[in-house]
Predict the 3D structure of the following.
Amino acid sequence: MKIPEIEYWEKLKAIEGQIRGFYNPSIPKNFKTSDLLEMVFVDSAFLIELCREFSQGIRLPIIPHPVMKSLKRDLLMVENQVPYIALLEIFLLQEGNSFQSTIKLANLVLKFFGIPEDEVTHSNETPHHMLHLYYNVLASPNPNTSQDNTVLPHMRSTTMIPSASQLHDHGIEFHKNPEMSSIMKVSLKRTGFVKTNLSLPFLRMDSLKRTALANMIYFEEMRNGPMPISSLCCLFNCLMRNEADVLILAKNEIVENKIGGDKELVQTSEWGMLVIMHEWRRYESSLTAEQFPVLILVK
């Protein structure tokens, strides 16, 4: 059933204040309601249809495969986010206002970014944007996992942990964490008189994950709270100082390198640390994690 355009307009008009609150407050003051809501509606409708058709295996002729890969990376960038509440209101109007519809939208978005439904633990809290939804799945501990593993503490130093080669030379054995539901669990256990096992989360590094990690670090920099993704990047930066370190982790199936040579992976880890250690000063200091850095007009 085709939904009249006026119904979409009324839904978005009712949450205009919340939509404006998600953007840098210095930008949309002189931005007319009609222009703002039109932009948000077009962006939201496109994203919903993109995720819906992707989940059905429909390949859009206007988006070739190489462009789709680039588009996925762009949609995880901080500056390209759309208020999730707008996506949700439009989707609920189409699918029916129910908790099941809310879960369905989240699953569609996450599947688009390569996260299957069986790895998702849903929250009753509405995310601020798609990056926030993606972040919650990766950074939040799964309540169904065992409590034997330790969630990463807050780390900002790059020198507090030896490299994988140094640990290996001192008898540390590396193992992949069998619980794949969270990338935030590590454990260090002595299993014998001199034998110690270090269990680490599996990290498949490709161009999408590299973009996602960098922008999740930015997201953490803007919020007041735990910084698990930054801590994870600190940990792997300490472990991967050279190609030999990458080889040790790869042999133990902890790291899967999909971005190029081992040297490039080391450089990516070092670059991630530069992002973490760099103070967030690109935008005004009052900006919060709920607000988007820029308001992008698509005409």
Q: What stands out?
A: The beta strands are 150-151, 172-176, 185-190, 196-200, 203-205, 255-257. The first strand starts at residue 150 and ends at 151. Residues 145-151, 274-287, 293-299 have pLDDT under 50 and may be disordered.
